Amino acid sequence: DIQMTQSPSSLSASVGDRVTITCQASQDISNYLNWYQQKPGKAPKLLIYDASNLETGVPSRFSGSGSGTDFTFTISSLQPEDIATYYCQQYGNLLTFGGGTKVEIK
Amino acid sequence: QVQLVESGGGLVKPGGSLRLSCAASGFTFSDYYMSWIRQAPGKGLEWVSYISSSGSTIYYADSVKGRFTISRDNAKNSLYLQMNSLRAEDTAVYYCARPIATTGIFPFDHWGQGTLVTVSS
Q1: Measuring CA to CA, how many Å separate A95 from each of A32, A86, B47, B81?
Q2: Would you state the pLDDT for residue A61?
Q3: Cα(B40)–Cα(B60) distance, rounded to whole angstroms?
Q4: DSSP label of B120
Q5: For A42, what's the count of Cα atoms within 13 Å in the CB-facing half-sphere?
Q6: Bridge partners (DSSP) listed for residue B3
Q7: Which residue of B has its CA nearest to A35?
Q8: What b/e sequence results for A52-75 when a residue is b if at least 16 CB atoms lie within 10 Å of its CB, and e otherwise?
Q9: Looking at residue B104, what is its pLDDT?
Q10: Looking at the DSSP assignment, which residues form a beta bridge with residue A87?
């Protein structure tokens, strides 16, 4: 099974800050990596697919990069509505989610 | 528009059974793989199972293999999850989800609202 190590588990940042979340796969998954946003009481929402492709309708302040085993998710300028938990998800072999990163406003 | 509506959750005793349903609308259900994903209270997301568009290909997470059965009825635009031998650790919100394209299994661009399953005596 492929394990996904996501860090940090939580972070606090100010509005306008650049926020970065990393995800490391236990083996090479090429670019089979997606990023989701989940707000309390809601279903997850797809933001980035195949490591770096922005889902339709998602603001351009969200971006993703990486391939192989190391991936990065970035919010270029944190907004109040970005408060949520973010998950990476690999599908190089079946499907595994990272542990999540809870993003809060400082 | 695409809609996925889960139902069938509730309180069940350890060792008991429950059948979840997911009613799909707004797209050609029979063209898409479908999946179940769950989330224990206050915890992260865990993929449970997926089924191909025809139902001929099925995979399960090791944590549910042998206890859960995924199925679909394309004529009724419905996805199911039969859950047997339930354990406390199966307590979670269960989501059905559809992938972004008919040619793939992942990623998921549409999710239902979820249905809560509580396993407790």
Answers
A1: 10, 16, 7, 18
A2: 98
A3: 17
A4: -
A5: 13
A6: B25
A7: B107
A8: bbebeebeeebbbebeebebbbbb
A9: 83
A10: A36
Over residues A20-36, mean pLDDT: 97
Chain A residues in contact with B46 by the CB 8 A cut-off are 97
Backbone angles phi, psi at B30, to 5 degrees: -70, -10
**Nearest-angstrom CA–CA distance, A77 and A28:** 30
Tell me whether residues A43 and B112 touch, CB distance under 8 A: yes
Which residues of A fall within a CB distance of 8 Å from B100?
Answer: 46, 49, 55
Any residues with CB less than 8 A from the CB of A46 and at least 6 apart, and which?
Answer: A34, A35, A36, A55, B100, B107, B108, B109
Tokens found for residue A17: 């800050």
How far is Cα A105 from Cα B116, in angstroms, rounded to an integer? 29
Q: Strand B78-83 and strand B68-73: pairing?
A: antiparallel
Residue to substitute from A46, A47, A93, A97, interface B, most B β-carbons within 10 A: A46
Mean pLDDT, chain B cut into blocks of 10 residues (121 residues total): 97 98 97 97 96 95 97 98 98 97 89 98 95
Collapsing DSSP states into helix, strand and coil, what is residue B31? Answer: helix
Query: Do residues B18 and B85 lie in contact, with contact meaning Cβ atoms separated by under 8 Å?
Result: no
Question: pLDDT digit string (tens) for B60-74?
Answer: 999 999 999 999 999
* Option in B47, B109, B112 nearest A97 (CB): B47
Return the bridge partners of A35, or none.
A48, A88
